[in-house]
From TrEMBL:
It comes from the Bacteria. Keywords: ATP-binding, Cell inner membrane, Cell membrane, Ion transport, Iron, Iron transport, Membrane, Nucleotide-binding, Translocase, Transport. This is ABC transporter ATP-binding protein. The lineage of its organism: Bacteria, Pseudomonadati, Pseudomonadota, Alphaproteobacteria, Rhodobacterales. SMART domains: AAA (SM00382). Pfam families: ABC_tran, TOBE_2. Residues 4-235 form the ABC transporter domain. GO terms for molecular function: ABC-type ferric iron transporter activity; ATP binding; ATP hydrolysis activity. Gene3D superfamilies: P-loop containing nucleotide triphosphate hydrolases. One of its GO terms (cellular component) is ATP-binding cassette (ABC) transporter complex. It comes from Paracoccus aestuarii.
């Protein structure tokens, strides 16, 4: 039985559906991530699950118990669902110990052991008597997490919980948070617009667009088998070659690609991620085109090269100048503008989509 079961949620504002027939399940100990651009409906979905907004249709169950549908609506405080927001929402007039114990019957004095346990697990024991204004952003985030987990909720909702943190702190805080959530066995529904965060934290990603879940599954599957060009481009930069199908084949500067199942004349997008575009350094600017085992090479010239820290980004234009392609190269690689180079690609990593 799933810990959280969302079935066919729809929500309209002024006749416009901002959430459209959304369904998913989250198991105990699993992190599911609602991922998508601003305005796609992910935060509205979260508010409906929390009980602070009401759906027009659909239903929600927690551990098999119906908490809301068209006739039934359990109040938010009785749903067994915890909340954690991006601004942490700590009470400034209460010390850390009372913030953590706020949702517990009997308060701090009746729950000393639980509060002490959680503060130890988030490494904040020495701040038990501190007030929120005395803590850094990362420390406030740890306290907010401890407070959300104190009542042992079956489901925890997290709305952009790391967006207010300094970028240097985020990865460490995310990893610590994920470890604690797994230990507690909580089912987590996390909202974010950052693909990196979803890939790092989620067991399953629910990719939303225009109020719908367009694809859901493990991060590996969404990255390597996106449902369309837009989904591919949401997770990383992409190069796109366009062409027309003729006899189940499409011509490109890298040779022909199989495009079966599409009628002659259909337009297609052939998508290549920058890390899968390879440079033949041995033949840079000289000699005939190489003949790699898994594809044909294309001649291009450097337009611009930038060093990004861990890798270099090199922008190319084909000899005709009609197509621009980006390639990433580990380390420092800054060839001068105009340098001719042969480019190859891994055909097993190429994605082909009908255009539209």
């Amino acid at each position: 039985m799933p810990r959280l079961d969302v079935q066919g949620l729809t929500r309209r504002f002024d006749g416009h559906a901002v959430v459209r027939d959304v369904s998913f399940q989250v198991q105990a100990g699993q992190v599911a991530c609602l991922l998508g651009p601003s305005g796609c409906g992910k935060s509205t979905t979260l508010r409906i699950v929390a009980g602070v907004d009401i759906q027009d249709s659909g239903r929600i169950l927690v551990d098999g118990r119906l908490i809301c549908d068209g006739r039934t609506r359990v109040p938010p405080e009785r749903r067994g669902i915890g909340l954690m927001f991006q601004d942490f929402a700590l009470f400034p007039h209460l010390p850390v110990r009372e913030n953590v114990a706020f949702g517990l019957a009997g308060g701090w004095k009746a729950n000393r052991d639980r509060v002490a346990e959680l503060l130890d697990r988030v490494r904040m024991t020495r701040h038990i008597d501190s007030y929120p204004h005395e803590l850094s952003g990362g420390e406030q985030q740890r306290i907010a997490l401890a407070r959300a987990l104190a009542p042992r909720p079956g489901v925890l909702l997290m709305d952009e919980p790391f967006s207010g943190l300094d970028e240097r702190l985020r990865d460490g805080i995310r990893d610590e948070t994920l470890a604690l959530l797994k230990e507690e066995g909580t089912a987590v529904l996390l909202v974010t617009h950052e693909p990196h965060e979803a890939m790092r934290m989620a067991d399953q990603i629910l990719l939303m667009r225009d109020g719908r879940i367009v694809q859901q599954g493990a991060p590996y599957n969404l990255y390597n088998a996106p449902v369309d060009r837009q989904a591919a481009g949401f997770f990383s930069d992409i190069n796109v070659l366009t062409g027309r199908v003729q006899g189940a084949l499409t011509d490109t500067p890298f040779g022909q690609f199989l495009t079966p199942g599409l009628p002659d004349g259909a337009e297609v997008d052939i998508v290549i991620r920058p890390q899968h575009l390879k440079i033949d350094f041995d033949r840079a600017g000289q000699g005939p085109a190489p003949t790699p085992e898994n594809g044909t090479a294309a001649l291009a010239r450097v337009r611009r090269a930038r060093y990004l820290g861990r890798e270099s980004l090199v922008e190319f234009a084909t000899d005709e100048g009609a197509i621009t392609l980006n390639a990433t190269v580990p380390g420092v690689f800054l060839p001068p503008e105009g340098t001719p180079m042969w480019l190859m690609l891994r055909r097993d990593r190429v994605l082909v989509f009908p255009r539209g």
